[in-house]
Amino acid sequence: MEKSLFRYIWTHSKRDQMIVCAVVLASQPFYFLSLDLPRQIVNQAIQGEAFKDGNATAPFLKLTWHWPDWLGGGSTPLFEGFQLSRVGLLLGLSCLFLLFVIINGAFKYWINVAKGVLGERMLRRLRFDLFTMVLRFTPDALRTVKSSETATIIKDEVEPIGGFIGDAFITPVFLSMQALTALFFIMVQNVWLGLMALAVVAIQLIIIPRLRRELLVLGKERQLASRELAGRVGEVLDGIEVVHVHNAYDWERAEIGNRLFTLYDLRVRIYNRKFVVKFLNNFLSQLTPFFFYAVGGYFALRGTLDIGQLVAVISAYRELPPPLKELIDWDQQRLDVQVKYDQVTQHFADERLAPLIEARLAEVQDEPLTGLLVAEGLRVTDPHGGMVLDGASFRLELPVHVAMIANGGAAASVMARIIARRMPGFGGQIRIGNRDLMQLPTSIAGRRIAYAGLDPILFPGSIRENLIYGLRARPVQNAEDARRKADRRIAEAIRTGNPLDDIADQWIDYDQIGVRDEDHLDHVLVELLNRIGMGNEIYLFGLAGWIDPERYPHVAERIVEARRRLRETFQASGMADLVVPFDPDRYNDQATIAENLLFGVPVADEFMGRSLASNSDFSGAIDRAGLTDDLVSMGLQIAETMTEIFEGLPPGHSLFEQFSFIGADELPDFEAILRRRRRTEALGREDRTKLLSLPLDYIEARHRLGLLDDELKLRLVRARALVRETLENAEVRGVEFYDQERVCAAAPVRDNLLFGRVSYRVANARQRVAEAISTVVRELGLREDIERIGLDHQVGTAGRLLTSQERASINLARCLVKKPDILVIDGALAPFDETRSQQMIDLLIDLFEQQSLFMVLPNDRQADNFDILMRFRDGQITTEERGGPAPGVRNTKPEAAPRIAGEVA
């Protein structure tokens, strides 16, 4: 990274900087004329110097070119101007002054906008450059660099640098030109007044920056303290489970409180120093007007300075302090930003970055990683200085299956990381054929080598997005690229050094992985997950997921068909009582009152949970249906019953789960409502809304409080049409209504298949219903479609919404789907039991008939099917051939290689 901030700015923005500076220079004549106009207004129009010869009119806008003496002198009239009276001249000069004010304002507007745009472009470039360097962090650097601190640097700490970039060259030029123009104008009017102004300006420019030096030191300390605070908060979040387990709340609060005090103390010291400097600066700024009024007034009294000149000087000086103050602020900002930039460059130091290896002659280098694998003189030390590998060497003919026997040591994992290029800092050399493994371009190694370690890393998003992550190497070029070059985004990307690629492009080369299109790829992913034993989980994710009828129209139609088939199955097998179907003309005893009234699924927050009772459209509809008083009365009964049942129970009692429509934290509110109800018959609007929310979550079959009779159920069913009409006419689309002939996109697939609610009255109803659903899904061939919906399941931050086995399975499938030449497994099967691990090992050996497989195993008990056993002792490596073909003699006929896509087609 460029060490000098100004060199970095100039290298990437000199063209724009020069254009804006040229505009700054072009604006100065207009600025000078605007300073001179007050003198002309006072002297020529107000005091009448233009009419001193008794003329009734005077020329306005008269333009004359005066020739220099060395060209003969004289003058040439260019424009005779307009003859105006005294009042006309006053108004003309005043309007001309206003015109110059507008012109100068327009210049300032354009310059400020240009600076802002330039700063944002450079900030975008800087952030992208830093992120690019993050991708180049070595594994060793990643173990010492805190991710939260790095993210804070890219997001927050470079923000002031970006704000300064637009000002780096333009602001000092602009402000200096304004200040020099004002000083020059004052000098023209009176030399002594100009010298006094110059003396005060010199004092300001020398003393104030020196006094601000301490602010830089304090600012650097504050920035480091802020970064450490962000890093510590990130550490606590990453280890929050340990905090909970060991009850370290008070310690962590005290630790963060101490850091916050340090920040507070630094801030206070910065404020004290800052405002002392500001006071002195303001005093010096007001000292010059004192001299102007005293000395300039004296000159005016003596007649050596006319009133118009004095007014013009004072007016010109009024324009002088702002640019001087901003110049001093700019110098302070420059020093502060330089400190920040130095800290950024230290964080992204060269020693933390892996060498940038470009894929030159990629068509030559991008060849299969097969042939003789030679390792010579490998040396690796552990943190204590011991030798993990000490001059170790071996030779293998690829493709080969190698079991790396750990036997409790670290050498096997170290060797696995070397082969996977995850440990660049080792001695010796490892090459395949005549190619150094560590010198392969990242683009080639990333496609032809896969590594599955102990801690699988998943990104927030869907399972599908994580599975195909390794396939998004580069976008597939298309015919529209030339047209898109003119796109504004492309133009800005070129100017800021950002990639021209768009994430909306097609990033997966289907031909390369042997599939036809996106649907075929999903088919491959689903089959692969089934083969590694995650099929049932994906199926359950699909049942709990949501279907997009526009994306899967044929699946939506088949789900409606499966719904009918499931209903017929229930009827034919005497299981009709398991599920109470949704019927527009009947009340569903297994659903809440809210669901019966809406007869659909809420899709907006204002229609969900407690918010539904306070929604004006919904409450207005049930009020017109005459149900409000009945439901509020039911809410009173529920509140009374709940307060009696829950009295004295701890918050975590199982009864709170059974009566889930009221929580332990809400009990005091409802107790207060009941006390107010006893004191007076009337209830306030807020109390009625809270009481109304209780029965909306009531299910008679589950809660069994006997609050619903047949008459009220009938009235609730009759109110459906009114509620639906009201909500359909509302501004917000808040509910997806049920329709027996189509899929409800807001409801999970399981609910769409049932189109009803499982009965609470039948024992083992849910298990029997699940079995019936599986049978119908299998008969209609819907399982794979549902599993494809399961691919949309979100994994959460770092995959925390999944179990450890699910994370490991997805990580392994991600490696397999790109069909690498070399797959390295180092602890990826640890979450599985021995039986499951052996099954997956057999599968991997079967899939990698023509590719190389290196697997770290704790012992040789699971190594029967491997070609080579690699053992580690005293820093040396020995290889042992097992039964089967010797290394390099394996069947490598093209037709013998199983293709993942072909197997599952």
Automatic annotation (TrEMBL):
Localization, per the record, is: Cell membrane
> Quick one: where's region Disordered?
879-905
Coiled coil regions, renumbered to chain: none
Entries under InterPro entries matching the protein: ABC1_TM_dom, ABC1_TM_sf, ABC_transporter-like_ATP-bd, P-loop_NTPase, Type_1_exporter
> Which PROSITE patterns does the entry mention?
ABC_TM1F, ABC_TRANSPORTER_2
The ABC transmembrane type-1 domain extends over: 68-329
* Membrane topology value: Multi-pass membrane protein
GO terms, molecular function: ABC-type transporter activity; ATP binding; ATP hydrolysis activity; ATPase-coupled lipid transmembrane transporter activity
Chief location category: membrane
Q: Which UniProt keywords apply?
A: ATP-binding, Membrane, Nucleotide-binding, Transmembrane, Transmembrane helix
Name it. ABC transporter ATP-binding protein
Organism (species): Microvirga alba
